[in-house]
Amino acid sequence: QVGWYNAVLQPAFHLPYPDDTLAFVVLSTPSMFDKALKPFVNKERLKIIRDPVDQCVSHHLSRVKEKFPDQRVDIMFDYEMLPSRKPKFLAQTAAHVAGAAYYYQRKDVKLDPWGKKKIFGVCIHPKYGGWFAIRALLLFPAIQVPFLEQPSPVDCVSTEEKRIELLEQFNFHWQDGRYRDIIEVKERYSEEQKAYFATPPAERFRLLGLSQ
């Protein structure tokens, strides 16, 4: 329900829908790279591609939308901004309230060791750890689900020590990706996928065999 999301945020970030409106959070798992991105790039090779991942996600979600010809389906992507430069939705908060992944933040640590430092939170998935991404929201404005029960996200980083380690690694050593393996994971990015996301965006086209 949209109301679960709005209830934990300041009004400036609220989604403009009734509280019991149905919404889905869309995640991409590690296999997205081989199962969706590479086939999409091969198919679209002769067209202009600005951002392969964003356009791949948009393509697949537009196909989902086509499955509901009689419904209004609103899609918000994780990279979209409002004119105020605020994101259209806060992806990690949405994932947490939907029960998809646990959003670990500074307030989840009792004995805070960081003083005045700015500490950003991070979502961890119980199966994929940090090897996943939150891509979009699908909203169904005409569908109200007042009796939907809110699922709790799985608290898979449950000790104080591990939470501190997670936030330390994410905030100060995110480039090495160690935070993604804070728990034992069932699946992680392939070496090819790691190389792709570690490459500056302008140089990624070459990795996919595209001319920029």
TrEMBL record:
Subcellular location, principal: cytoplasm
A Gene Ontology term for the protein's cellular component: cytoplasm
Keywords: Cobalamin, Cobalt, Cytoplasm, FAD, Flavoprotein, FMN, NADP, Oxidoreductase
Sections of the chain in a coiled coil: none
Cofactor annotation: FAD; FMN
Enzyme Commission number, as recorded: 1.16.1.6, 2.5.1.151
Reactions it catalyzes: apo-[alkylcobalamin reductase] + methylcob(III)alamin + glutathione = S-methyl glutathione + cob(I)alamin-[alkylcobalamin reductase] + H(+); 2 cob(II)alamin-[cyanocobalamin reductase] + 2 hydrogen cyanide + NADP(+) = 2 cyanocob(III)alamin + 2 apo-[cyanocobalamin reductase] + NADPH + H(+); apo-[alkylcobalamin reductase] + adenosylcob(III)alamin + glutathione = S-adenosylglutathione + cob(I)alamin-[alkylcobalamin reductase] + H(+); apo-[alkylcobalamin reductase] + an R-cob(III)alamin + glutathione = cob(I)alamin-[alkylcobalamin reductase] + an S-substituted glutathione + H(+)
Similarity section: Belongs to the MMACHC family.
Protein name (Swiss-Prot/TrEMBL): Cyanocobalamin reductase / alkylcobalamin dealkylase
Gene: Mmachc
